[in-house]
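Deliverable D5.2: sample structural annotation.
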Amino acid sequence: MASTCPNCGKTLRWYDVKAECKYCGVSIPNYNWEARLEEDAERAAEKSLKFHKTMNMFQYSLWGTKLRIVRIIMSFLPALGFILPWYKLTSEADSIGIDMLGIFTDGNSLIDLFKAFFGNMSLFFTNMSYEGGSGVLSYSMLSLLFFLLCAVFIVIAFFMILFTNKHPKSKLMVVFDCISIACCVVSGVMFSLGLGSIGPDTAVNFGNIPLYHISGSIMWGYFVALALLVVALVFNILVMKAPAKSHEQLEEERLAKKAEKEAKEERKRIEREKAQQEAEKKAKEEQERIVAEAKAKLEARKEKKNKK
C-alpha cells in the first residue's frame, strides 16, 4: 500500500524502504518527533482520564453509597429464593417438588423433572394435548416456564447494575425487577389453576413420573422468593430516585483523595527526614561527648604524670 512523505507529501511506493524520503531527504521516522511525542502524551492523558472516569462510575455504581451497598446485596439475595421449595404435587404413586435440590420436599426434585422433560419432550406435549392444554400437567409446565423466566429476568436485573454503571440512575434494573415479579405472580396463578383442575380421578404422567389421586400446595419458598424480589425492586427504586454524583464530582473527589494521600506521604517523608536528622545530630553529639571525655581523661593523666 502506498503512503506519503509527512514533509513533502510525495507518494511513496512499497519498495521505498529507506528511512529517508527519496524526494526531500527528510528522515521519516524522526520527522517532527517532538510534536508527535506531545500528541502521544496528550492521547495517553485522555485515555488515563477516561479510564479513571469509568472506574469511578463503576465503583460508585456498586458501593459508592451505603444505599448502593445494600442494593447490591439485596439484588443478589433473590437468586437464593430459587433454591427454595415453591410448589409440591403429591400422589399415591409419586410426588414432584419444585425444589431445585430436593432438600425441602420429598420425592422428585426440579432437577428430576428437567431430566424427565428433556429426556422425552414429545411425551410431555402428547400428555398435555390429552388434557386440552388446561389440566394439571399443562398448568404445572406453564408455571415452571414462568418460574424459569422469573429467574432469568432477576439475573438480568442484577447484571444490569454492572452494565449500566455509566448511568447510575438507569431504570433498567427496575424494569427487569418488575418483569421478574410479574413472572413470579403468573407462575403462582398457573400452579393454582392446575390445582383447581384436579379432580378425584385425575391421573397424569409427568414424563416417566406417574401421579394419581393428586394433591398439591404452594409452599413457603414461593412467598419468601416473592418477598425478596419485592425488596430488590424497592432498593432499586430508592437508588434510582436518590441523588447521583456526576463524572466531574467523582473526578474531583478522586483528585482530592489523591492530593490528600500525596500530602500525607509528603508529611511522613518530612517526619522521616527530621527523625533521621535528629538521630544524626544525637549520634554526632554522642560522638563529640565521647571524644571530649577521652580528651579530658588524657589531660588528667598528663597532669597526674607531671605532678609526679
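Annotation notes: The chain has a mean pLDDT of 82. Strands lie at 3-4, 11-12, 87-90, 95-97, 203-206, 209-212, 215-218.
The annotation will be released with the project's public dataset once the embargo ends.
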